[in-house]
Write a structure and sequence with these properties.
This protein is an alpha/beta fold and 136 residues long. It is built from four helices and seven strands; from the N terminus they run αββαββββαβα. It is 21% helix and 29% strand. The chain starts with 6 loop residues before the first helix and ends with a helix.
């Protein structure tokens, strides 16, 4: 059984967990989201969701990937430099709906996948409901 303390080393991180609100947070450092997903799969962690939000003063977006490992909620934040990040759909099918929702709501391109409309109607602009720079 994998212990919480052994995970940062397995992920190649020199950081320690920070517990906040029942979630154990770990900065991914140089790890990509695909490397994280592969590592979580190897640990038999269960994908839960991605939380997306715009940072203040239009400093970009932050995506927080949430996984469950043996009853422990793990969170990994990624700040986007632009509007794209690699998709992990091919590594974890459970991510399909939330990647599509974030694509439509925040205009994030998940690289390496195609999208079917989820909530938007034909002619709706992606990101129009949630991204400040798109609203203007």
């Amino acid at each position: 059984m994998t212990t919480l303390e052994s995970i940062p080393e397995k992920l190649g991180s020199n950081q320690s967990w920070v517990e906040k609100g029942g979630v154990h947070w770990l900065e991914p450092g140089a790890m990509t989201v695909r490397e994280l997903a592969q590592a979580m799969n190897e640990l038999h962690a269960r994908f839960i969701t991605i939380t997306a939000y715009q940072l203040p003063k239009q400093e970009g977006l932050r995506l927080e990937y949430h996984w469950d490992l043996d009853g422990q909620l793990l969170g990994f934040p990624f700040q986007l430099a632009g509007n794209s990040i690699d998709s992990i759909y091919d590594l974890c099918e459970a991510v399909d709906w939330i990647e599509r929702e974030i694509h439509e709501g925040f205009a994030v391109d998940f690289l390496g996948r195609e999208y079917e409309p989820l909530l938007l109607r034909q002619g709706d602009q992606i990101g129009v409901n949630l991204r400040e720079e798109v609203k203007k």
